[in-house]
Amino acid sequence: MTAPERGSPHSLRQLESLESMEGIVRAEPSVPPSGSLLYRLPKGALVHAVYPGVLVAVTIALASSWLSQHYGAPVMLFALLFGMAFHFLHEEGRCVAGIEFSSRTILRIGVALLGVRITAGEIASLGVVPVLTVIAGVATTILVGTLLSRLLGLNRLFGVLSGGAVAICGASAALAIASVLPNRPEGERDTILTVVSVTALSTLVMVLYPVFVGAIGLDDMRAGIFLGGTIHDVAQVVGAGYMVSVETGDVATYVKLLRVAMLLPVVFCIALVLSRASKDAASGGAKFFPLFLVGFAALVVVNSLGFLPPLVVGAATDVSRWCLVTAIAALGIKTSFRDLASAGWRPVGLMLAETLWIAGLVLVSVEFFV
Q1: Is the pLDDT confidence value at 146 over 90?
Q2: Residue 23 pLDDT > 60, yes or no?
Q3: How much is the pLDDT for 40?
Q4: Which three-class secondary structure state does DSSP give residue 29?
Q5: Half-sphere exposure of 41 (CA within 13 A, CB side)
Q6: Helix, strand or coil for residue 17?
Q7: What is the Cα–Cα distance from 258 to 22, expressed in whole angstroms?
Q8: Phi, psi at residue 185, to the nearest 5°?
Q9: What angle do the packed helices 171-178 and 263-280 form, to 10 degrees?
Q10: Residues 370, 127 contacting (CB under 8 angstroms)
Q11: How many whole angstroms separate alpha carbon 152 and alpha carbon 317?
């Protein structure tokens, strides 16, 4: 490939692979200057197209992380709200392509790297009952979400999305599931609603559930299973668990990581079902099985075999976190407050019902089977 070809607008066709969950917004054509280093690189035109939007998303992620550390609020919520304040950047101009890239490719990198947090040994150490409880909780919560979404007049895909977020690992699960759902006009609004609601609910139950397990007299082991099996986000599980005791915190963390491990089979099944449905229907839309899930599974296996030193695991975990916060900032930029307000109360009511369902199921399990 010659230098002029590398910098030509024709090479920007690569951006078609960066479609958002509701279809790519056409980016403003831009070519790197002929004398620049990017002009000479094989992917120079692509890098030149995406870096302004990526820088915006990263900047919002940095600001959100700083505020989260200093004020103790969920970083995902800060990233969403700040991103939504810059919605105008997604309307047109040089930032569009990078925002799309951040909400898509960077998101998938972050989800894939979640695999380093899980090992087969940690899962096996929990015993049979917690494993079966988690599997039943994830499967039935998604089913309940799908059924209730129809009763509430919502799209069944929102029930799948919200149910998976509540059942698995909150915002991270919502982003992963959304990445394999079919393109639809309200897709990104539903993703943002899910992330906002699940983050708020997770913060609320982080405060309420430790008091609840003490009030009903659960011992450390059973309290850890309940907290790890019900609270949405990993950080809130850790916080709630260690509020009770060290043993409760350890058990809660392991149970929560088991729920995170369910992300792979759940997203795979969703992608497979939607892929088959799109072949049977006249109108397609579902995507092929995403390769980032292969990366997730590979990292789980490699980490389980002990090939990854703690330093690498820690670094990969940090990179994953930054990728997810950057992606959620980009999703916030792509969403307007007006779109969220138009959704009404039903999505929040659905997620509250899903939260109560999984809490009741896990409570029955720890009371009668543990």
Answers
A1: yes
A2: no
A3: 59
A4: coil
A5: 12
A6: helix
A7: 31
A8: -55, -40
A9: 30
A10: no
A11: 38
**Closest C-alpha to 84, from 58, 49, 60, 53:** 60
Rounded to whole angstroms, what are the CA distances from 47 to 2, 20, 32, 40?
A: 17, 18, 9, 12
pLDDT at 42: 59
Token look-up 């917004």 returns: 25
- Please name the residue that has the structure tokens 């024709």: 10
Task: Give tens-digit pLDDT for 251-275.
Answer: 888 888 888 888 889 988 988 888 7
Q: Is 34 exposed, middle or buried (0-12, 13-18, 19+ CB in 10 A)?
A: exposed
Using CA atoms, how far residue 3 sits from 32, 36, 43, 113, 282, in Å, is 11, 11, 11, 35, 43
Q: Which tokens belong to 83?
A: 């991103």
98-136 pLDDT per residue, tens: 888 888 788 788 878 878 877 887 777 778 889 899 999
Rounded to an integer, what distance in angstroms lies between the CA atom of residue 88 and that of residue 37?
Answer: 30
Evaluate whether 53 touches 94 at the Cβ level (below 8 Å): yes
Q: How far apart are CA 181 and CA 177, in angstroms?
A: 7
| In contact, 196 and 77? CB cutoff 8 Å | yes
Which one-letter DSSP state was computed for residue 183? P
Q: Is the dihedral of CA 294, 299, 300, 302 positive or negative?
A: positive
Alpha-carbon span 357 to 144, nearest angstrom: 8
- What confidence category does residue 200 fall into, taking pLDDT thresholds of 50, 70 and 90? confident
**What would the mean pLDDT of 325-340 be, rounded to a whole number?**
78
On whether the CB atoms of residues 83 and 330 are closer than 8 A, the answer is yes
Instruction: Using the predicted structure, report yes or no on whether residue 336 has a pLDDT greater than 90.
Output: no
Spell out the alpha helix ranges (H) of 152-186: 156-167, 171-178
Tokens 């035109």, residue? 45
Query: Tokens in use for 150?
Result: 């129809």
Distance (Å, whole) CA 305 – CA 185: 43
| Amino acid 168: pLDDT | 92
Average pLDDT over residues 306-324: 90
Question: Which residues lie below 8 Å from residue 251, measured CB to CB, with a gap of 6+?
Answer: 126, 220, 221, 223, 224, 225, 228, 241
CB 277 within 8 A of CB 287: no
Mean pLDDT for the stretch of residues 126-154: 92
